[in-house]
Amino acid sequence: MKPLRQNIRNLLCCVFTITLAFFAIASRPHSGHAGDWPEILGPDRNGKAVNEKLQAWQNTPTIRWKVKCGAGYAGAAVSNNKVYLWHREGNEERLDCLNSNDGTRVWQARFEAVYRGGVDADRGPRCVPLVSGDRVFVYGAAGDLSAIATNDGSTLWSRQLRSEYDADDGYFGAGSSPLLIDNVLITPVGGSDAAGLVGVDATTGKTLWKTLDQEAAYASPIRVEIDNQTRAVAVLRLQTAIIDPESGKVINTFAFGKRGPTVNAATPIEHEGKLLLTASYGIGCRMLDLTARSLKNIWDTNDVISSQYVTPVLVDQQLYAITGREDFGTGELRCVRWSDGVIAWSRPDFGTAHLLGVNNKILAQHVDGRLELVAADPDQFRSLANFDLPPGTYRAFPALADGTLYCRRNLSPTECELLAIDLD
């Protein structure tokens, strides 16, 4: 059993990035503006910065401030000049509200931490906070969902969803983002008695509906528009579902995933009625036409993008994606044509990195602690600038707001640090 356990640990540990994510998407398409990164993958939950400008730096970027924090892989959220940092200190999960200018703490909310850990020794939260209006929502590693007032840090309500619905911790605990549509927090729980997804009232915390007998995954659900109707797309352990967010009614499901020591961790991408999903572990990627009467593949392959946990970013009809596995040292950057999956170019030695789209550039935060700016050029790979971050492991998803990049580095299973880096 020990060799098998070690293989599973080696196989999946890096996936853990769980950049996982999380956070909820806004109730309607977000117009976004410079200065806000209110959830995972940015204001439109697609990894693209809105109204940000970024040039190749000539001098070493300045680290404006650093803040020590506890365990976890949750990236920061930024809204209205406040930075929200979700982490674990001892037996508490803590949400720090920081001043974006200097990193000073405005307030702190505390919750009992009960997650005992899984494949990864880090027991901190995995999910990026979700800021919406006067509230911020956090989802802990044990599946506790809470709403907190942004003005003073007071707890408005809190639910132990995974305990209530008898959900398994999985490999890494809870790590899939709740999605906010109108006033419904669509939360991947993976519980028994058809509680794969649970719709929670964002105002009261009460359950509105639950559906699907499926374990949760680590990919975050997204909002899409199909035939002028708002739907949610949620990637679960072995299938992906399209649901009505108001009622929880399942509109459609299709298989995606694989049994065994695997995870679905990359958030899906939707563009003009087309949906892209990708995962590693022999799963590959597929693009579907959501506008067709019956769902069908536009392209489906295991040879183009097999992302272990990094969500690709779409710029000018080209996908920029990491394929391969961090634990195998096979992270490769690829430029892939959105329409048909044709590979424009590959960079085999690139390594694993989170990717942000900033106008006509790709900002990569490498797991080993290097920032790299790459041209979004379908003709060739062009590296524009590099910057070595302080030593550490950078698996949490970064946030880019008002010219500042917020990167979280893990120093040990119990200690992290948030860096605010001036890139403007």
From TrEMBL:
Keywords: Signal
Coiled-coil residues: none
Signal peptide positions on this chain: 1-26
Gene3D superfamilies: YVTN repeat-like/Quinoprotein amine dehydrogenase
Stretches assigned to the Pyrrolo-quinoline quinone repeat domain: 92-346
SUPFAM superfamilies according to UniProt: Quinoprotein alcohol dehydrogenase-like
A Pfam entry, by short name: PQQ_2
Name of this chain's protein: Pyrrolo-quinoline quinone
Organism encoding this protein: Rhodopirellula sallentina SM41
